[in-house]
Amino acid sequence: MHPSPVVPEQDTWLVTHSAGLLRPGEVVRGALCVRLDPLAPDTPPERYRRPKPEAADGARFAGWGKLLLPVAAVMYVVSAPARLLERGAHHTWRGIRRLFRGPVWDGGWDSAAGWFVITTRAGADDVPGHRNEQLALVFTDQRLLLLSRPGQPEREAAQLLGEVPAGRFARRRTPPPARHPRRADIAFPDGSWLALEPDDRRQGPLLRELLPPA
């Protein structure tokens, strides 16, 4: 008899949502909602982004959009200084925080950790953009499943974003700084790694426990 999966009370919906994604005989060990570290890369370079369905929808209505091009152009020019100021402040603040927080990932975009960031940032197919930071992880005896997080789990199904085979991920050998008790670092065989954190800071130990030791 298999033990019951370890899942925080607020994340029990993950057991139901992942049931249809399991292979015959595959068993869920645990699941919880996480997010990328606040200092993880914001948006992957364009060449690494996968196409999303809304791009096709936008092309379908391109004819109507042309009527608004003059207005859009004026608004773009007027708002340019504000966008530059906001972007500069954002990067300055991230730079200051990085001095105290330290590195939160390593390996680059072509690494396994890079794939993890790209997959997370893309999010579900029906959500525009590549700035998603929320993710649901389901740990089984065979794989790590990366799922989207629907706004209403009781009505919307979570989408499988990607998966990592067992043995291809682990807890990073070097533990996170003690000042970040909710953080857990996932590591990959190519030497890359990435910092994650659960929604609930009390679930930090659970996330670390579900990541197998290196």
Task: Give an overview of the whole structure.
With 214 residues, the chain is an alpha+beta fold. It is built from six helices and eight strands. Strands 1, 2, 3, 4, 5, 6, 7 and 8 form an eight-stranded antiparallel beta sheet that branches. Strand 7 and strand 8 form a beta hairpin. The longest helix is centred in the middle third of the chain and has 33 residues. The protein is globular. The protein starts with 12 loop residues before the first helix and ends with a helix.
Shape: globular
Q: Counting H and I runs of at least 4 residues, what is the number of helices?
A: 6
Helix-strand string: HEHHHEHEEEEEEH
Which structural class do the helices and strands define?
A: alpha+beta
- Report the span from N to C terminus: 27 Å
Give a quick account of the main beta sheet: strands, pairing sense, barrel closure: 8 strands, antiparallel
Radius of gyration: 20 Å
Work out the strand percent.
15-25%
The helical percent reads 25-40%
- The chain-level mean pLDDT equals 85
Low-confidence stretches: 83-91
Total strands: the figure is: 8
